[in-house]
Amino acid sequence: MSVHDEDDLFQDALDGVRPLKGPKTVTSKQKWKGPTDTQVQRQLSAQEELETERDGLTNGYVDQVEADAVLSWCSSGVQHGVFRKLRLGQYPVDARLDLHLKTVEQARTEVFRFVRDCVQYGIRTAIIVHGKGHRNRDQPAILKSYTAKWLLELPSVLAYHSAQKQHGGAGAVYIMLKKSEQARMDNLERHQKRHR
C-alpha cells in the first residue's frame, strides 16, 4: 500500500466528521498554588529511589555474619600500624551513624550518605553502629551483614574493624576513610612547601 492510498483511506474515514463546538481553550478558575504536600512527598520518595539505585550498593543476598563475629578488612594501601591503631580504637571517632531500628533499604541509603558526607567534610575515622540483631530471632545480624558488604563496595573506605567494647564491640564498626580531594591537595601543598 502506498502513502497516497493510506492518505485516501484516512480521508474516507474522516468523511462526515465535524469539529466539536465550544471554547477553543480551557481555562481554570483556580490559580495554581504549587504542589500539594502529597506531591512533594512523592517527589522526594522518587528522588531517594533514584539515589538508592545509583549508589551501587548491594540490595540482594549477602552472606550472613554471626551476631558476635568480628568484622575486619583492610585495603592493601593501609600500613599495618595504622590498621592496628584503628582496630584498637586509638583514633578519635569524628562521626557516628546509628542504624538501630532501620530497614535494610533505609540503612543502605544512610550508610551511603554517611560515608559520602564524611569524605566531603574531611572525616577520616568514623563509627557505624549496626547492632547484633538480637531483636530479630529469625535472622540475627542482618544489618551487620549488609554493613560489612556495603563497606567493601564503597571505594572511599580504606579499612574497617569491629569496635572496642566501650564503643559497642561487635555491634559497631570503626571505618577509616580516604582523604577528600581538597585534603589531598592541601597535604600535597604543605609537603611541597616543606621541601623547598
What would your notes on this structure say?
- With 196 residues, this protein is an alpha+beta fold.
- It has a domain of 114 residues: 2-Layer Sandwich (Ribosomal Protein S8, Chain: A, domain 1), CATH 3.30.1370.110.
- Helix content is 41%, strand content 12%.
- It has six helices and five strands; from the N terminus they run ααβαβαβαββα.
- Strands 1-4-5-3-2 form a five-stranded mixed β-sheet, sandwiched between helices.
- β2, α4 and β3 form a beta-alpha-beta unit.
- The model has no long low-confidence stretch (mean pLDDT 85).
What's the topology here?
Layout (H helix, E strand, L loop, with lengths): L2 H12 L22 H18 L17 E3 L5 H8 L7 E4 L5 H17 L4 E5 L12 H12 L3 E6 L9 E6 L3 H14 L2
Parallel strand pairs: 2-3
Antiparallel strand pairs: 1-4, 3-5, 4-5
Helix pairs in contact: 4-5
Describe this protein with a few key phrases.
single chain; 196 residues; alpha+beta; Ribosomal Protein S8, Chain: A, domain 1; 5-stranded mixed sheet; 6 helices; 41% helix; elongated
Measured between the Cα atoms of the first and last residue, the distance is 82 Å
Shape-level CATH architecture of the domain at 72-185: 2-Layer Sandwich
Major β-sheet strand ordering: 1-4-5-3-2
SSE series = HHEHEHEHEEH
Assembly level? single chain
